[in-house]
TrEMBL record, chain A:
This is Quaternary amine transport ATP-binding protein. One of its GO terms (molecular function) is ATP binding. It is found in: Cell inner membrane. Pfam families: ABC_tran, CBS. It is a peripheral membrane protein. Residues 278-335, 339-396 form the CBS domain. It catalyses: a quaternary ammonium(out) + ATP + H2O = a quaternary ammonium(in) + ADP + phosphate + H(+). Belongs to the ABC transporter superfamily. Residues 4-264 form the ABC transporter domain. It comes from Alkalibacillus filiformis.
Automatic annotation (TrEMBL), chain B:
InterPro entries: MetI-like (IPR000515), MetI-like_sf (IPR035906). This is Glycine betaine/proline transport system permease protein. The chain crosses the membrane at residues 45-63, 69-87, 94-117, 137-163, 217-240, 246-265. Keywords: Cell membrane, Membrane, Transmembrane, Transmembrane helix, Transport. Belongs to the binding-protein-dependent transport system permease family. Coiled coil: none annotated. Residues 90-269 form the ABC transmembrane type-1 domain. PROSITE patterns: ABC_TM1.
Amino acid sequence: MSKIKVSELTKIFGPNPKQSLERLNKGSSKDEILADTGNTVGVNQASFDVKAGEFFVIMGLSGSGKSTLIRLVNRLIEPTSGHVYIDDEDITNMNKNELIEARRKKLGMVFQNFGLFPHRNVVGNVAYGLEIQGVEKQEREQKAQKAIEDVGLKGYESSFPNELSGGMQQRVGLARALANDTDILLMDEAFSALDPLIRKDMQDELLKLQKKLGKTVLFITHDLDEALKLGDRIAIMKDGQIVQIGSSEEILENPANEYVSNFVKDVDRSKVLDAEQVMRRPEVLTTYKGGPRTAIKKMEDVGASSIFVVDRDDHFQGLLTIDDAIRAYKEEIPMEKVLNQDVHTTTPTTPLNDLIGVAADTKYPIVVLDEEQKLLGIISRVSILSGLVLGKEKDEVTN
Amino acid sequence: MNYFELPLEQWTNTFVDDWFLPTFGNAFDSIGSVLNAFVDLVTDVLLFIPPELFTLLLVILSWRVGGKGLAVFTFLGMLFIGSVDIWEESMHTLSIVIVSTFVSLLVGIPVGILSAMNNRVQSVVRPTLDFMQTLPSFVYLIPAVLLFGLGGVSAVIATFIFAAPPAVRMTNLGIRHVPKEVIEASKAFGSTSKQLLFKVQLPLAVPSIMAGVNQTIMLSLSMAVIASMIGAPGLGATVLQAISRVNIGLGLVGGLGIVVLAIILDRITQGIGQGQNNKS
């Protein structure tokens, strides 16, 4: 079941939208309609699905209709035609009260210029959504407090928006959307007004939060790098139409048309790809139980001179070379004593960019570990370079 | 240019004498008596409070909203009013100002809200306000007298017509200037229109509304003086008396009294408005 389903959604601005809609359905272009009727086609028959827990990005340049599209989803702008289903309920057919209820319970929103209430302090802003639902003061402030801590603003509860920096203001905006505990977050160019460093931090944190809280995110941006970094899937918009939907790889590898390929041709692959996308599962692993003898046997089988060692739960222990294994075998010393721990480790989300230098001055592959120190995969110099040239080799990782 | 005769003067008089007054006379009488009671009440209260106590309260208020300088000025001003023996006249003027400001805000702020929410309302309200503000103020005095007779009530009505427009305009402006994204945010989280108005739009419009209140008070004061021509008691009457007797000294006394009241009222209301500004 899709969380958000948008079908044939169209918005025409101007004096006579119905008539223009007919012309649009008959195949007239946006420019023809503007010239003949003075009506502007904002969004032209957009359709897409967003799955629960998915991070869906809509990317387009200014004037492409992306901000209109996201406002059609919660009906801040009334659609001219088409449907939006949230959890299979048609938002476009709701009456006023049902719409208000859906906005309260299902759709949180974050705005480009933050849209904070300047007359309320941070808690007042974050608790606003609960306040208008009539939630008791104590309960709503408790929930607000939790959201404030989630976005890392503890200690600023009683500050007013004009006392905060841009990045902090947007954290308040995010906390305000989180406090309502809706499944869906609508984010309209949420980070576009922030400077690049802060923007990167916010992107990282948003990804973490989204993973932790399992939100479905509909994110609007004009920045392709941001779209590629954040989106599980990306929809590219031009002149009110969605021209392609796909994962970042699909869009990079198979641009649907010239417009998209022009867009993506300057993308720096080293920024787009991260460790997870180029790593591969090491061919051999051994468990502790086996002892040096088993290890030597295994290295012989795969024809390698070293092997990565993990414990029963996949926790990374170290690198065992054939020389050390033989030494341990001969001198009957425990294997843990001879493990080489001096290998480079990294996280799955580290951009390839940051690994190029490391790869150059280590003779062993880089080890990719998750937060619990479990071995996810290894990256050799070869895979970095091939990743840069060919794209990722994710298939090998999926097993 | 007299190509055809337009007897506007005659028509108006016939309309008012033969239809308007017989039909609505009673209604106006009851409005008049309510207002009259209101003005009398405020005047009685103001005159009942001993001048020393009144001055003390006003000085404290000035201190709190405008600081030490304003407090000193208020003290000296009230001392001046008492010393030139126009205390009673000042209180009469003040009570007309208070009542007409109250009525102006009571009508003006809701109308301002309505016209901010609805463009159609605004398209009716705006020309009406233009008409009210550009018509020479003396012209109001005639129908006011006709409907409410000579005295304080007519003064309040004429003052209301003159002083209400800024309250309407500034309320309208304040609400319309609330940033679009803030409104969108409020709606996106599921506010009803009432919640939007009371929790977001009005609080953010307060500084603008306070500027309107300040303007309304200032205009009330100037009109309350002119209204002495239709028998409103107060400082205006003092000045009028001075004119008819060519008594330059009395004129100066009355004039300065008005200036003192105006400055005190202006600074106090501005101080309150700025306090609101700082808070947000």
